[in-house]
Amino acid sequence: MKKLFTGILFVIISFYGFTQNGLKTTLPQPLSLKDQEQLLSLPDLVMPDSYKNKSIPYKVDHSESEHFRDMFAQSGMSCGQASSTGICFTYEMNAARNLEANVNAHLYPTGFVYNWDAGDWGSSGVSYYHTLEVLRTVGTPNQEEYGGTIDAGGNYRWMTGYDLYYSAMHNRISHAYKIDVGDAEGLQIMKNWINDHLTGDDDGGCAIFYSTVPSPNGVLPAGTEEGGKKVITTLTASTSHSMAILGYNDSIRYDYNGDGQYTNDLDITGDGQVTMADWEIGGIKMCNTYSGGPAWADGGFCYIMYKALATGAFWHDVVHVMTVNPTYEPQLTAKVNITYTNRKRIKVYAGIATNTSATMPEYVINLNVFDYQGGDRYMTGGDTEADKTIEFGLDLTPLLNLISPGQEAKYFIQVYENDADGWGSGTLNSFSLINYSSGTPVETVCSDPAQTIPQNGIATLSIVSSETYDPVNITTDALSSGAIMSPFSQQLMAEGGTMPYTWNFNMDFDITESTTSFPTGGTTLSGSGFFAVPLGFTFSYYGQEYNTIYVSSKGLVVFENGFADSFPYYNSHAATIFMHTKYIDHAGYKRS
Predict the structure, then answer these.
(1) Do residues 319 and 190 make contact, with C-beta atoms less than 8 angstroms apart?
(2) CA distances from residue 183 to 172, 305, 307, 370, 437 in whole angstroms, order as listed
(3) How does DSSP assign 195-208, residue by residue?
(4) Model pLDDT, residue 14
(5) 184 contacts 275 by C-beta, under 8 angstroms
(6) CB atoms within 10 A of CB 395
(7) Partners of 164 in the beta sheet?
(8) What is the mean pLDDT of residues 42-69?
(9) d(CA 291, CA 277)
(10) Could you tell me if residue 182 is left (phi over 0), alpha (psi between -120 and 50 degrees) or otherwise beta?
(11) Do 416 and 428 form a contact (C-beta atoms < 8 A)?
């Protein structure tokens, strides 16, 4: 069992090697590929058995909550960030901290999470899968700190200033989950989440989803629940637009078959069975930041009938939800200063080596910020000399899981350049460690001079230091004996660190390289670059059974045909598909 230092799930990722413009680079070893897959894939939200027959209110509407912000119009193509961060994250964090969403310090901007991956011209859509990773690993400043509006400074801006990044580290999600709401069982899970987070909370949760850009096509009948309010009775799934769900109402109704009745027990589809696709009663309440925000539908809000959910309203029939960590405190951070002329050509890694003579880290934290992004621009997005330089902070707390308190280790900041055109130049100016574990920040400054970022090479600054911290210690000495062939569980107890604790299994394994020829007996999948290879047996991988794998000549194995089809903004932001899809990788399959 691996001990995690805080309640924040973390990712320490690297690849075994990649080639960039002829430079062969061997990167540090990751924790394990299976660990990565387990941490990155969004799991299903599971409803506790105690909730399966629980009575819940017939309606919940978080738009009436003091924690819910006023509706707003999104900036440009940032629908995924408006729904995930501007609406859902803002509500969830305010509910967790019991704050009113009536001042900028209690609101969260869309620009910070959007601008990392908004494309060369700052106008591309960005998948909220990417945003969830930013919220989990980096966080976000509040709207007051960001400049007072959702998009202060425009879509090119990258925020500068260590204190702002340090503040952002406190505003994070801890987990994200998916719920399949295409049937009544999944709908019930979502309704319970909306009601009380499946934990008995006084405040429930929100959800986000992808679909087409909707237009209300109906009005709830006069004399019925919410009569006169706009409603969407049918919707076609796609990844065109992201929106948020903030409530439900089991009593709204719409007469689909025109028989003058509102029923949930008649087969109106004619398929010989009664399912949610036949329901004329009940729906969700959602909000839309597109088309003028508050000017859309009823002040930005609208209902969608449950029947529409059962007939393909949402992309893959799924919604996504998040849990926040309102009390998170980083223990160890890095303050970094870089001057560079073309931010799209560099990537930043933070890492650690227990061998203090090492010239490369043994483990790295691989974030989806400062990751060959942001277009061919100066570091903060502007065009002045000052815009070439950026100062930022990174949370290094996950690295403390790899050492004992006070153990001497070597900490690294590295800048990788991938610049075939020779358009970029600059320096890694400075790096320091800041330890907050005692309550008073203690800064250790790297004594090395600024390092020129070499052409298609690596600039490195490092610090040898003995960092103290309060570790998590499992206090359960032994597990009880369970009955053979019967379910068994035991609560593990721990002390130290910062609660709530999060546990995951250490699933490291050995890797054996082979030069075996690529299989030719499989079936080529048209246009995909993959071959379908029947196994001839059933293979269990993370709780699901497979008898066919799909293999790419680039070294990628996936478990479903068309794994990238229609993924939100996959063509522009390929990395997001790898965050949320089961796969086995070796030797640097191209992710972006």
Answers:
(1) yes
(2) 31, 13, 9, 40, 47
(3) HHTTTT-SS---EE
(4) 27
(5) yes
(6) 27
(7) none
(8) 96
(9) 29
(10) alpha
(11) no
pLDDT grade, residue 36 (50/70/90)?
very low
Q: How many CB atoms lie within 10 A of CB 329?
A: 13
Are 140 and 171 in contact, with CB atoms under 8 Å apart? yes
| Spatial distance between the Cα atoms of 390 and 333, rounded to a whole number of angstroms | 16
The encoded tokens of residue 110 equal: 């869309």
Q: Identify the burial level of 443 via C-beta atoms within 10 angstroms of its C-beta, where 0-12 means exposed, 13-18 middle and 19 or more buried.
A: exposed
User: 10 Å Cβ neighbour count for 529?
Assistant: 12
Distance in angstroms (rounded) separating the CA atoms of residues 217 and 254: 11
Task: Tell me what pLDDT residue 558 has.
Answer: 80
Q: Residue 135 above 80 pLDDT? A: yes
- Cα separation, 438 vs 434, in Å, equals 11
Confidence of residue 575 (pLDDT cuts 50, 70, 90): low
User: Between residues 512 and 332, which one has the greater pLDDT?
Assistant: 332
pLDDT score, position 472? 85
> Percent of the chain scored above 70 by pLDDT?
83
Q: Is residue 369 packed enough to be buried (19+ CB in 10 Å), middle (13-18) or exposed (0-12)?
A: buried
Tokens 């025109």 belong to residue: 258
CA distance 212 to 471: 47
Q: Which amino acid is at 166?
A: Y
Q: Say what the pTM is.
A: 0.86
Query: What torsion, rounded to 10 degrees, do the Cα atoms 577, 580, 585, 590 define?
Result: 20
**Backbone phi, psi, residue 412, to 5°:** -125, 145
Give CA–CA dist 493/42, Å, rounded: 26
